[in-house]
Amino acid sequence: MMLAPQQQPPTVGRRVSATEITAHTPDGHAPGAQELPAGWAARLELGLARRGERTALVRNRSLGPLRVQRPFYPTSAECHLYVLHPPGGLVAGDSLDIAVECGADTRVLCTTPGAGRAYRGGSTQRPQTQAVRIQVAVGAHCEWLPQENILFAGAWARSDVEVRLAPGAHYTGWDIACLGRPAAGERFTRGLFEQRLWLWRGDRPLLGERQRLAGGDASLDAPWGLGGYPVFGTMVTTTGNATVRDRLRELIADFGDDGVLAAATLLPEVLAMRARARCSARLRSLFIALWQELRCRHDGTEPALPRIWST
What is the reported pTM? Predict the structure, then answer.
């Protein structure tokens, strides 16, 4: 989920007051600043390396409530990591900073055990933020497949995902967001969600997207926007081609109903799938089906689903 300004090391893992991020006048005082409750800054650094036939988790550093307890191995060559955020959601001023470095010829899938949440109460001065930075070395393949993020009405959330690929490296990832709580009849009538995705091959950008959705804005219901669908998501991969795109379009057509709208677009070196839905479960099921097809095409075998998805 969410685009965070870079956190300075002293703030990581502790509560940060709003006055620490407020512009100050030359005399050192913030004009009209009030001391607000602090936010919680957390950081997670993961490093993976090839050890014989296995992808090993060689670095696992965390500060604050963000961690990976242990790696799982559905096959000898593939590593699954579950990123845990024990509080289960973000309140005003909270930030998560996740860095994943995949060494040469590694294979890793990162996911989350449940939906993330951004609760109401944020503001311009105290947003709820998450930044994910992924580096993928030569011959490595990283998959970032978190479960959906739920933005309560009144949340002020920012999401930033940046992926840098070396030659011969591959990435598959998705991001699913739910505006409001449709099951409870809550619409995203107030708040803000800013989202950014950057995908690089060396110093060359492959994909750059940014959007800004304000609570109650006309774009949430307009046909040229979300069309009244509260759930939307983007899935991207560097493993696709025209043949794969056509096959995914067939799967989308077979899956499609009044509750899900989706499309697949082939760009230079990137295959992008975009969807909107009435509920998160339907969109997530579609993305899992597309991911399974991508893995079968790329690896020639049926992928092992993370066990946490079945709990």
Answer: 0.86
